[in-house]
Amino acid sequence: MVLAPIRELELDFAKIYFYETYVVCKIYDSIVIDTAKVISLHEVYREFYGKKKYGYIFDRTSNYTINIIAYMHCPFYADVSSFVMVAPNKETKKTIKYEEIFSLVPLKIFDTMYEAQHWMELENQIKGS
Fold first, then answer.
1. Predicted model pTM
2. Distance between CA atoms of 50 and 69, rounded to whole angstroms?
3. E strand intervals along 13-110
């Protein structure tokens, strides 16, 4: 990782790493992410960041499923400045491209966490976060 997280939090379905201007979320294997889980994640993020916008890195190296309806029913998109996915394999990248159809924000894809965090750090410098 580029930097050490400010805080780490473990939920029953995910591990969350908080940084100054972005969050990294790693969902555990065999989990199905539905609207309720998406909302609970964003409520945790809002508790940490308050009204400040933050970047979001989704670590897609685990084998889990996202119910695409969750993308359409998430009321927290306004909180997110950038949405990044880490997906080292082709199948996951294809899945993300399909999911992006239902996302209200563009999804940027990287092969490694280092690349994703490096891009997020640069993006936040450009945006002045």
1. 0.90
2. 26
3. 14-18, 22-27, 32-33, 54-59, 65-66, 80-86, 108-110
